[in-house]
Amino acid sequence: MSSNPLAVREHGPRYLWIREQLVRMILDGGFKGGAPLPPEGQLARHFGVALGTLRKAIDELVARKIVERVQGKGLFVAAYDTQAAMRLFRIVDASGVKQLPNFDRVLGIRTRAAGANERLRLGLARDEKVVELRRTRTFADGAVMLESICLPGSRFADFKARLGTQRPVLLYDFYEQEYGVRIVGVESRLRAVSATADDAKEMGLRAGHPLLEVERVAFELDARPVELRTTLCDTTEGRHYLDVPG
Amino acid sequence: MSSNPLAVREHGPRYLWIREQLVRMILDGGFKGGAPLPPEGQLARHFGVALGTLRKAIDELVARKIVERVQGKGLFVAAYDTQAAMRLFRIVDASGVKQLPNFDRVLGIRTRAAGANERLRLGLARDEKVVELRRTRTFADGAVMLESICLPGSRFADFKARLGTQRPVLLYDFYEQEYGVRIVGVESRLRAVSATADDAKEMGLRAGHPLLEVERVAFELDARPVELRTTLCDTTEGRHYLDVPG
DNA sequence: AAGTGGTCTAGACCACCGT
DNA sequence: CGGTGGTCTAGACCACTTT
């Protein structure tokens, strides 16, 4: 159905056009993470192109981790399993092993006016508010991270109530389940800072202790920024941030 | 010539086999950065495969930034132009612009026994020595970075004399010209540390100032580590390390 | 056995670059 | 103009998964 093989379309390679159609299909078609997509042959007929062309479009979505191929089974919308989280979370312990820290304690959830940096990074309008969640996370060895998470208030209504008593390790799962927000990419800025008295108290360190500050912006499929997360982490015991450029 | 289309070869897709042949061709064939490769049609005939298969092999090398395609002109071995350097160098100034800091001053070049970390990261034998270059680099705004660069002595003979009075901003160019060593990938570990008295003096800061320490290992085409570089950078004036996962 | 993705072929035509 | 890479086709056969 629909199809319409050689419609008006012009400008640009067909596989790029198909790639965008597929993104919209996933976004608007109610495909959740892990959901199966139609088989390649069917998609090729639907778009009226050869299999090779359709595959080239899929290849790019696979490279972007938006779609997964499983031989003999089919195509699937990529899910936020632990593996994906591992790809975004880059702090590694002394033995070189990535280990997701627990969601330890909520320090506060509040809605407030956005600061200049939050407006910039999240692309907010002048008067838009943000929801801020402050929490601690702990590693297996007991080390504590301090995290502040800012979300655009307009898209995360009723955040405190919906989070309730949940303490999800992967907030991105929560965003998807509760708000239909799929994170597909991040961009991080790293700095070294000194622990303030408050930081130090919360993390069990002395004031002035050097901390790695990771400011991470998370993006949706359509490249809109949806989360600004600032993490403070002690990196003096072998723990470090690992960067392996693609 | 040679060719030998359907030789013993088995196990594994052909395009992977061809990809490895191409890597060896570049490594052993004396192709310098920027050198043109034979056209796709010729390579396809040489390996005895269809154009599409050859292109799939090339696609992977292009993705790894080992080969470049230029429409209408041909294939080229990727060069270390400033753009490639920008991809590896990830420190961004306050305005968000990447700017390569100058090679400011040599603090010392010496050959010495390798420490435990150097042996680990560079995969050195027990008794192998390293050449260490210590230098400062300065940004346009005057900020200073402190850098220690360790190389396996066995592969960088006569380093001090060959460097002479050169002050290349891109050491990787120097490695390629003088030693035929092509860097194609890096892996960085980041920590926050406190400036020692010596660091502080060299960088014009007070002791205890928080510094971002970037420990970067550079790899050759065949994945051998060839350089361990430790950089200390002041990140309190808006300067930061930018990480955009592929 | 039927259905899926993975590899491979042997062409075609287009867009771009140099002479 | 001829040569190059870029796109696209319409098939073929293989490897894997499920029924």
Task: Explain what this protein looks like in three dimensions.
2 copies of one chain form a homodimer. Chain A is an alpha+beta fold and 246 residues long. The first copy, chain A, contains 8 helices and 11 strands. Chain A has helices at residues 14-28, 40-47, 51-63, 82-88, 116-122, 159-163, 171-179, 197-203, and strands at 36-37, 67-70, 74-77, 91-92, 102-113, 129-138, 144-152, 183-194, 210-220, 225-233, 240-243. In chain A, the strands form 3 sheets. Chain A has a 6-stranded antiparallel beta sheet. In chain A, helix 1 crosses helix 3. Chain A is globular. Chain A starts with 13 loop residues before the first helix and ends with a strand. At the A-B interface, strand 8, strand 9 and strand 11 of A face strand 8, strand 9 and strand 11 of B. The structure holds a DNA duplex (19 and 19 nucleotides).
Give the largest interface pair and sizes: A-B, 31 and 31 residues
Order of helices and strands of chain A: HEHHEEHEEHEEHHEHEEE
Shape descriptor of chain A reads globular
Q: Strand content of the residues of chain A, in percent?
A: 25-35%
Summed over residues and divided by their number, the pLDDT of chain A gives a mean of 90
State the name of the first-level CATH class of the largest domain in chain A.
Answer: Alpha Beta
